[in-house]
Specification:
This protein is α/β, with parallel strands linked by helices. It is 31% helix and 32% strand.
Length: 250
């Protein structure tokens, strides 16, 4: 069983790495300190299991798991968390598990055994379990499902699934949909925090795109990429942001 661990705290990483190396049939494929590093390792190493800290800089562990849940063959996930026991109860979904810091070897072994059992599950079942886990942890209202657009004396909602891309324009953000474009008073950063990272990706300092709207990815200059969207628009995907979403290049 190949394992990747991700935790921004060095002592926790060392403890997990030691336990993993002392476990039979386990290969430690890599260690990550941030969510972006974790996604990169998972994309390159294709582990069977990921030990994922909930609170990390960059992308937190739940955001990483959200991305994994959208993939066809997601690795199994064991969360590592310092949350209180009330929040931790949301993690308990049978085949998936959690480790509450500080944890001992006995608790680690139980989590590893549950993960071994989960390896026998069909991939579709595992992805569904991850999605359920995230929904319980984050809550149904963690990410918005529609944006309110004001146009003169009228306001209306646009479902996020209809959004092709969002473009920063001064103090506004232009929401490009299948039917047209509308400006709203917001920042790209605030919208990024409200949109599901499994559905939207930051590809440039001025652009968020709907992943489902990407028709083609072309290699470009100096490590950048060019995204061709289904509405015909072309967006530069900068090397900096591409490094944060290696899963999109798989």
């Amino acid at each position: 069983m190949r394992v990747v661990l991700a935790d921004d705290e060095a002592p926790a990483r060392r403890k997990l790495a030691r336990f993993l190396r002392e476990s039979d049939g386990v290969e430690l494929a890599g260690e990550a300190r941030t969510g972006s590093e974790a996604l990169g390792l998972i994309a390159s190493e294709r582990p069977d299991l990921v030990f994922l800290d909930v609170q990390m800089p960059d992308l937190d562990g739940v955001a990483v798991a959200q991305v994994l849940a959208a993939q066809e063959r997601a690795p199994r996930v064991v969360f590592v968390t310092a949350f209180d026991r009330h929040a931790v109860r949301a993690f308990e979904l049978g085949a998936l598990d959690y480790l509450l810091k500080p944890f001992d070897r006995e608790r680690f072994d139980r989590a590893l055994e549950r993960a071994r059992d989960a390896l026998a599950a069909r991939p579709a079942e595992t992805s569904a379990q991850i999605a359920e886990l995230i929904a319980r942890l984050r809550g149904d209202d963690r990410y918005v499902r529609r944006l309110l657009i004001s146009d003169g004396d009228r306001s209306f909602y646009v479902p996020v699934r209809e959004i092709v891309r969002l473009e920063a324009d001064g103090n506004d953000v232009v929401v490009h949909t299948r039917r047209g474009a509308h400006a709203i008073r917001a920042t790209l950063e605030s919208l990024e925090a409200r949109l599901d990272p499994a559905q939207f990706a930051r590809v440039h300092r001025s652009h968020l795109v709907n992943i489902d709207a990407i028709a083609e990815i072309r290699a470009w200059f100096h490590g950048d990429h060019k995204l061709v969207l289904r509405d015909g628009s072309e967006i530069t995907w900068s090397r900096r942001y591409a490094a944060k979403r290696p899963d999109l290049l798989r």
